[in-house]
Write a structure and sequence with these properties.
The chain is α+β, with helices and mostly antiparallel strands. The protein has a domain of 54 residues: 3-Layer(aba) Sandwich (YefM-like fold). Helices cover 49% and strands 16% of the residues. A three-stranded mixed β-sheet has the order 1-2-3. The longest helix is centred in the first third of the chain and has 11 residues. The radius of gyration is 26 Å and the shape is elongated. The N and C termini lie far apart (62 Å).
Length: 93
Amino acid sequence: MAYEIPVTQARAELADLINRVVYGGERVVVTRHGKPLVALVSAADLERLEEIQDPDAQVITSVAGVHDAPAASAPREHHRFGIAAEHRGSNPS
């Protein structure tokens, strides 16, 4: 749950609010006329939010780390897993 504070009060207490976020692990919502205006969150929270907004970035990183299996093991693996087709590369023979 976030701590809510009016923008006029937040302006006067900005340093304290930053400390609450950084050291207290709180999230602060700054309001204007009772409506949420902005939120103060830790840099770690922001990083997690950005990962959620761009989930492909993490997938691309994971896929980039995958390497092709050695060709010698391919026939054995096809039989083991019942794979009926195989990729022959750019020059099929």
